Amino acid sequence: MKDTELTLAEAFDQAEFIIGGHGSRKVKVLQEVLAHVDGEQYSDHYGNGKIIDQFQQQMADVLGKESAVFFPSGTMAQQIALRIWCDRKGIKRVAYHPLSHLEIHEEDGLKELHQIETILLADKDRLIRLEDVEGIDQDVACLLLELPQREIGGQLPAYEELEAISSYCRERGIKLHLDGARLFEITPYYQKTPAEICSLFDSVYVSFYKGIGGIAGAILAGDTDVMQESKVWKRRHGGDLIGLYPYILSSQYYFNERIGKMELYYEQAKELASLLNACDGIHTLPEVPVSNMFHVHIPLAQAEVERILASMAQQFGIGITSYLQETSGHSCAFEFSAGDRYEGVPKDKLRSALEWLDEEMRKHVK
Question: What distance in Å separates the CA atoms of residue 29 and residue 37, rounded to the nearest whole number?
Fold first, then answer.
């Protein structure tokens, strides 16, 4: 079979080495967890039980908050957090980045389900700054900050600016909510604990299927009275399944397995970004990653890059991405996240593949 007969996705799936993430989302992810737990223990039951109580307390402690509630999804958790803050202030208006998950990935759930207005801060291609917050000219109940800001490569503000925004919001009675889907992944860059970062925020959401690699699930954390109210909304949203234990068990297992590896993933991301930036025409955003995740931008048409990367996967057995996103008629990009798989990739094979990629780029980039 010739190289050109395989699509990028097919070549990626057949590659001997996949350099990103922890592994494929297969049933064995849950099987590994169940092999390490007592099958006779009772599951949670409509949001109650030892399994869920223990994990919620563990996460409250890790995040430095009074209380925490496990949700089946971050979408549910964050809409509920913002609804509570709006109800408490009597203002159904919040502010966040134009590329917030709530704005572009949730079919306007916040607006349609909760009738909450949104103010979009900053330009799409940059982070929210203190001056943007100071420039809000309407009363808002809450400001949501996403750390890192995924849609622009996982960028982060300086910690000092984050502290300044937090102080400004507290002085003016604006609640500050953290979209911390990838919170644990930014701790090496800030050199802060999760609790230290979360101390700047009134409520916090974290995900367990991204850098942690669980099946699904999220934690919302904050003051006890707020979390008790979130449980009511969780029931209203249909989030109290009779049992969430597959998600809870996988979240806890992989959290315990991987929380100590965040520094490693961060260093791996910086190493790969440096290698990619050495390829003609290719650049990463950020140039030096601030977490285990970054975006790779290539100044060639999507179809052309798909052919090149599919060929690389077949020739060298290195799968770098299964997809590309068109950014213009002559450019495209993809997202990379370092995880457990990167360590198993032979470095000589990876360097040979990227040297070949550099040569291919020189042929095609004008």
Answer: 14
